[in-house]
Amino acid sequence: MKNGLEEIQNRFLESISRMSDDFGLNGFVAKLYGLLYLNAKPLSLDEIAEALGASKGNVSLNIRELENWGAVRKVWVKGSRKDYYEADPDIKKVLSNKLKSALEKRIIQISGMIEEFNSTIMKANGELNEEEKAIASGYLERLKKIEELKTMAATALAFANKLL
User: DSSP H helical segments within the chain, as ranges?
Assistant: First the structure.
């Protein structure tokens, strides 16, 4: 790759890595997807590792995560026994699928947390004095607010699934 184009590619990859970190996503995974997204031809694990200055093992581990997202796929290259990968070029689909799955995971975590705290408070309620019961009641009210937020997020997710 010509020096100027390599510099542009590197700046792009660093930018998407930083942006993904801001969204709580793995910056290296974003960089890996970005490299494959920019390249018109499939790349081998060796080529990817060299371009990103990473170990082949690190690339292999993170490429599996991208495969699980549906963001990249393994392709066959005639005459080679190496594994080659290419990015799904529909970046809107890739990002929306990842964001939806992350939101679904968080909704499940919040549901479990609310259930656990409600159960714990209800079990302890019989052993609490009046002051503690008032505090526990406050906890339950706050948990209801979190439950409302979770319900809003689940509704938004369902709406987004219909749109996409």
Answer: 3-22, 27-38, 45-52, 56-69, 91-124, 130-163
Rounded to whole angstroms, the Cα distance separating 6 from 38 reads 11
Specify the higher pLDDT residue, 99 or 129. Answer: 129
Architecture of domain 3-89: Orthogonal Bundle (1.10)
Rounded-to-integer distance, Cα 149 and Cα 110, Å: 10
Q: Which residues have CB under 8 Å from 115's CB, separation 6+?
A: none
User: What CA–CA distance (Å, rounded) separates 95 from 33?
Assistant: 11
Q: Give the number of C-alpha atoms closer than 13 A to the C-alpha of residue 78, restricted to the C-beta side.
A: 0
| Distance of alpha carbon 9 from alpha carbon 51, whole angstroms | 10
pLDDT of 130 above 70: yes
Q: How many whole angstroms separate alpha carbon 56 and alpha carbon 146? A: 43
pLDDT in tens, 33-79: 999 999 989 999 999 999 999 999 999 999 999 998 889 999 999 99
> What residues contact residue 18 under an 8 Å CB cut-off, 6+ apart?
27
**113: amino acid identity, one letter:** M
Nearest to 45 by CA among 36, 115, 148, 37: 36
Domain ranges in the chain are: 3-89, 92-163
